[in-house]
Model the fold of this input.
Amino acid sequence: MKSVECESETDIESNKQEGGNQSNTSQTKSLLLSDEWKPYLRPRTIVKEWLLKLRCCFGAVCGLEWYGFAALGILTAFLSFLMDFSVLKLLKAHQWLYMKLDNNSLLQFLCWTLYPVCLCVVGSTFSHNICPYSTGSGIPEVRTILVGFEMPHYLSVTHLFTKYVGLICTLAAGSTIFLGKVGPFVHLSTMVGAYLSNLCSLIQTKHRDNASREMLVVAAGVGVASCFGAPISGVLFSVEVMSSHFALRQYVPCFLSAACGGLTFRLFSMWSGDEETLQVLFKTNFPTAIPFYPLEILLFAFLGLLCGAVSCCYLYLHRTVQQFTKTNSVLKKMLTTEKGLYAGMVAFLLACVTFPHFAGQYMASKYTMKQLLTSLMDSRQWGSQTHNASVQLEPEPWFEWISTGNPFYFSLTFFLLMKMWMLVLACTLPVPAGYFMPVFVYGAALGRLVGDGAAHMFSLTSINPGGYALAGAAAYSGAVTHTLSPALLAVEVTGQYSHAVPALVATLLANGVARSRHRPSFYDALSIGKRLPHLPSLKKVFPQLPSTPVGQVLGGKSVQLQKAAGPAEVQDAVDSSTETQIPVVDSHESQILLGFVLRSELLMFLRHSKNETIEKHLDEVCCIHPISVLLSPHNTIQEAYSILSLVGAQTLFVADGGRLVGLLTWPEMKRILEDLTKEI
Amino acid sequence: MKSVECESETDIESNKQEGGNQSNTSQTKSLLLSDEWKPYLRPRTIVKEWLLKLRCCFGAVCGLEWYGFAALGILTAFLSFLMDFSVLKLLKAHQWLYMKLDNNSLLQFLCWTLYPVCLCVVGSTFSHNICPYSTGSGIPEVRTILVGFEMPHYLSVTHLFTKYVGLICTLAAGSTIFLGKVGPFVHLSTMVGAYLSNLCSLIQTKHRDNASREMLVVAAGVGVASCFGAPISGVLFSVEVMSSHFALRQYVPCFLSAACGGLTFRLFSMWSGDEETLQVLFKTNFPTAIPFYPLEILLFAFLGLLCGAVSCCYLYLHRTVQQFTKTNSVLKKMLTTEKGLYAGMVAFLLACVTFPHFAGQYMASKYTMKQLLTSLMDSRQWGSQTHNASVQLEPEPWFEWISTGNPFYFSLTFFLLMKMWMLVLACTLPVPAGYFMPVFVYGAALGRLVGDGAAHMFSLTSINPGGYALAGAAAYSGAVTHTLSPALLAVEVTGQYSHAVPALVATLLANGVARSRHRPSFYDALSIGKRLPHLPSLKKVFPQLPSTPVGQVLGGKSVQLQKAAGPAEVQDAVDSSTETQIPVVDSHESQILLGFVLRSELLMFLRHSKNETIEKHLDEVCCIHPISVLLSPHNTIQEAYSILSLVGAQTLFVADGGRLVGLLTWPEMKRILEDLTKEI
Done:
């Protein structure tokens, strides 16, 4: 563990921005207290006094930001529950309608196809018109924001609303479209986090510099946790996907928020569903006495390798189709202007294929995502019980898989083959949608096939195929996203701790296969497709990119001031630069870098110089701040990127032998990355 | 998540040390291939060829370091199993002897007291004589090593052997001494890791710079995993304790190694114990239908707060006693020269108190640590079943707790009060010992008291006190070590996933209480007591330390060369400095820093200059390497420490306005920290 003291970031940032923030804080305070021109002065004063007292009370227990973290978890969980609730109602409505039309196949076909088509068209058009960025998963954008790049339109409240409504439409289209909610929910919780962080900074007396950034980091962790009520793996998943370094300072806030989120989500589920206690999301019935035999570890390892290999196929297909939609002129035009039409067409195609009187009967298309997962993770062997399934009064939870009379391995194989291309196609849909859950279900089906297949082939009656489905789900989703935490996630959503070690083994091996030869993960491919300035993804495609020296790519001459600059030069600098930190050199000839001055101080200097008669020099009035970390032009882009994200949203100065060469900021870094990836 | 690209470290290091390592690699190769002077040339050649082919085969699948990681896990787990096995035999021998002497109280007393006394004296004297550093936990030293400081004697094979044998003695003394194995095992696995990393670097063709460091990081994670067969929480615990930043590059190796370790540990346990399948370490019998009612969350939260408060008392007592043993002249002398005597005296005192015919009967002292934990985590309520306990044929697993006829809350309270000071006393024992497990058991007792007490007081028959014991164990051990992962650890060692959320809530609240007011954790206190140069611990006691500017504390003038230096000046510099990187300035007058030269190049320069007649300047022969990261004297110690540990074991140059001020290396940093903490 490279043990870098996390507080250093805070220190560096706070040193630099001290000047700017004091005025900010007092401004915040005045916003809260002194609106004397508004009506009802007395009642307002009383309410305000009470609010201030309340703030003091809360602040006495712990910092106000901790309430923010807890609120974030609770809010996100509430949003998640509300979404699940609405989606369930919409799905039930569809099922009810389909059942009512039982006599007429044509009407059934129309009901089956038009319902998801309408939802997709509505979702796509709605999100396109209100907030065009809201389609897709959102995880690539969130991790770019967390590195340090500013993308304010990705965190607005409009965006939150659009994504929320659009996602409900997508999920209500059900297993026909076969998309999930994890990715968008990470994005949604980040937006909630950004909003809460603004609220916190309004209330807090003590301004903390990186508070908003910290809240975003926490929010990314909460997303998954409130999606499944799985706090531990939620945080770990977001750590793995989002960052390449994790500061342990953010560990406790993350887990606090995730625990609040997970608990709230489960409590809501309990209250709404008349359950007696807190339950896991996907109930299972594994035998507890002997979860698995030691030799089965080998079969789990084989499953892991298989999942890794299949994930490579899937990722390759996904990249190819993604590339095709970008290059094919018809599709490109359609996806730019006629998103609704495209969404409708794809949804119609998918719905036709899954129609239960057509191919759908061989792939259990009547099941929702949740039913699919529950049926796949059932601990009983399908093979051994097919014969008497029709005799029983209540159908088995996997009845749909064998309803045609074909053996289970036929329907599972058919499901796997069909869903592969259907999922790749669904990924091109311009709607807000998550791509984790379908992959998780796909992996469960793969695991089920291996587990039940082995039991059937070698007549192993004591094997539990549900365990293989669990391990397969973990391994396949881990391989697609290049993460290990799905192993824990699978345990958390089923509550089957006994299978943690096999799931971990399978996930490790699947990751080994998927990560070999520096293949990009699913999210990396999305990042690259969207040309986001995310270096860890970009370097999978442009391997020489990180080792390019900064000196080669640094932009033109930056604005600089000499030590003895007068008001005229300062005015020039203020006019021509928008940076908050402007470098000061010994003289324009020597170029020896002395430090930097803050823009605010320069403005003050200009104001003072107007009132005074004697012209003063810059170094007589302004404080020249020392530079803490200096780069050389020989530093690689990778190093500059790392240091920039370590010290936060700050300017880095590049100097060669003490002489100023240029500035490096996030916008500059973005330009560099865009230039280089265009060039190559 | 501050997303700093981890590869940067590698890049920086590899850039700097390229020159030095090429020669290293070829040297390694020659070691393996060309020992022509040894006998049996032909057989050796054949064996070597086969070995080389084998290496190629292995290397074709994945890098050889991955086999190293897997081997590390398996080896550590084997060591752990072997230790458990030996300890079990020794404990059984003691029990057998004690039972045989059932008629004679005096002999029983002697057996009860002298057995642990002998073991402690042997363990203490053995470790003192062979390797005096091997006493204590080892975690503070390991985390200092992981930051970047070199402490080679802490990773030697002698140390490994001494600690292993000493630890067996300590554990065999059983619940009388009440110490565990987690801490030393982390240290042991780090030593195994260091050894394996040397082995790997001998075999590998491609030399990787930070391979040994990476292996140590992984090893720290494996320690806990192989101790309990708990791979996931093991890695997380070591991440939390060891570092303040975690590079995700090390995530997969850590989990691979931990999964191998956990699996091997459980497989060994299975094979040795005739169990049918892989089992968790501490078996529990929680009801699965309704693990807990939602309102119980409040009781769990109360338990968390209570655990936090008690942990503060414990940590305060521990610090006070630690200070006392340092300042009291008699104890100080005894602990320096007569470790065996001191260990014997303390062990005798502890054994007297726990003697079952004396106070021991009220605190279930006949139970081993494992039995204690199993009895505390039993799901049945003790209170409701005390009446018919004597009627049953086989005693309940908690029989010892109520054998005196006193109600359970009396014995639990007595246990908690007595063990508090006994544990603090045991912590002063100069033997290799872990301090995590006793705290875990103590927390379980606290949880049991709350759970069973609440059930007894409010007559709640459906409550499961075992769940409270689980949550209490997690919360208390989390509070003492300032970590959250015990919540997951408690789940992993019992397999009771249903209680993950309550345990997490309790642990979060306990951590909140324990961390308030910047109190040092248990390991922090050990670090401070041993005056280790570990900044995150030191700053808990010296809050102004991290913000001291580097310029104030930097040592005297460093050795430097000017660009135009001749052989005489270079010879001087080589003689007077031991650094591998020597700074080059423009001229001694201007002091403008240009870069650095490697020591190896200077030696080459000197060799060449002897052969040539015309005197050449430094810059004509040697390559002056550019400096990647430059510090200013205004940087704080915290910042310097962070950057130093980010870039690995490298030299940092400090310059002010382009002029060289000094060098900063780990030994220099150690000196600075020692000076400052002495001063204040």
Notes: The beta strands of chain B are 245-247, 561-562, 581-585, 593-598, 629-631, 652-656, 659-664. DSSP finds 29 helices and seven strands in chain B. The two ends of chain B are 35 Å apart (CA to CA). Chain B touches chain A through 103 residues (CB under 8 Å).
